[in-house]
């Protein structure tokens, strides 16, 4: 694939983030809807979700792909806490869980105000140990990615789980369908995608909030819109550029909201994660496949 076929450069700043000789690699195919990639630097592997097949997969740099967990309870988004434990959003269980080092699964959140969550979708962990996750209704809309059910929550919320107490609080309640989320590298802002246009005639955008005292979100404002498909999962590089999924590939936005460029992917992209030894390899989950491409920047992520 030529550079012209692979990249859509909208701003010259994008040229400083991509390697001209790098190529998009398909690492695995055979999924029904790939999601939730998370890099394990200590284990030198990537774990991701194949939601409809109710399994989680593991890829290693030697090319070996294996099943990490099956059944997975329709796990969608994944991340790691600062201790290196796997944090997952389960559509099937309608809960957020933590996989302990010995393999035990601890439930972190499954209800709010006495009612079941909708279907936790994506999750991030702040440096203070708090866990923030989105709760749209995708996993209960049909039996394809979970179990069909009526929502018990009146709204589709974003929640925060307090690290010391485990208390769950709704921090945003006005999204149509909150989806991907990520903190800016300095954790002063939280960015949240609204993918409501996949089911409603509404904007397909990412909003940004100021984080106050590590617990509250204020000053909601528009950051960017996706011109192809909807925003799903996204992550930041060390310079504060936002790399997000879209229908035609991966879109990269500067901190000022300018679209710098796109990496074209032949399947609809759901999510991304930086990984590899230097965190300069972008892993891309897209419909049936797992892809990767090297960049000239590094992901802002821990551990």
From TrEMBL:
It comes from Rhizobium tibeticum. SUPFAM superfamilies: Calcium-dependent phosphotriesterase. A divalent metal cation binds at residues 35, 179, 232. Its EC number is 3.1.1.17. Substrate binds at residues 121, 145. The keyword Calcium does not apply. Binds 1 divalent metal cation per subunit. Residues 33-287 form the SMP-30/Gluconolactonase/LRE-like region domain. Signal peptide: none annotated. Gene3D superfamilies: TolB, C-terminal domain. It comes from the Bacteria. GO terms for molecular function: gluconolactonase activity; metal ion binding. Keywords: Hydrolase, Metal-binding, Zinc. Its cofactor is Zn(2+). The active site is at residue 232. It holds the Pfam family SGL. This is Gluconolactonase.
């Amino acid at each position: 694939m030529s550079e012209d076929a692979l990249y859509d450069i909208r701003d010259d700043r994008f040229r400083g983030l991509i390697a001209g000789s790098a190529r998009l690699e398909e690492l695995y195919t055979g999924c029904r809807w790939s999601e939730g990639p998370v890099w394990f630097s200590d284990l030198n592997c990537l774990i991701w979700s194949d939601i409809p097949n109710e399994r989680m997969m593991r890829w290693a740099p030697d090319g070996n792909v294996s099943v990490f967990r099956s059944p997975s309870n329709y796990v969608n988004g994944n991340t790691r806490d600062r201790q290196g434990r796997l944090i997952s959003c389960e559509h099937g269980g309608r809960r957020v869980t933590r996989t302990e080092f010995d393999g035990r699964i601890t439930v972190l959140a499954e209800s709010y105000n006495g009612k079941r969550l909708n279907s936790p979708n994506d999750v991030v962990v702040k440096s203070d140990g708090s866990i923030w996750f989105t709760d749209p209704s995708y996993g209960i809309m049909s039996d394809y990615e979970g179990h069909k059910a009526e929502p018990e929550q009146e709204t589709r919320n974003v929640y925060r789980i307090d690290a010391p107490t485990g208390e769950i609080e709704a921090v945003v309640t006005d999204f149509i369908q909150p989806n991907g989320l990520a903190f800016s590298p300095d954790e002063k802002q939280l960015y949240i995608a609204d993918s409501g246009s996949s089911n409603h005639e509404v904007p397909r955008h990412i909003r940004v909030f100021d984080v106050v005292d590590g617990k509250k979100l204020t000053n909601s404002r528009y950051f960017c819109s996706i011109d192809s498909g909807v925003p799903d999962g996204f992550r930041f590089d060390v310079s504060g550029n936002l790399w997000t999924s879209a229908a035609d590939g991966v879109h990269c936005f500067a901190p000022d909201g300018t679209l710098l460029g796109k990496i074209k992917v032949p399947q609809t992209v759901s999510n991304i994660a930086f990984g590899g030894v230097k965190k300069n390899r972008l892993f891309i989950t897209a419909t049936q496949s797992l892809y990767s491409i090297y960049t000239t920047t590094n992901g802002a992520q821990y551990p």
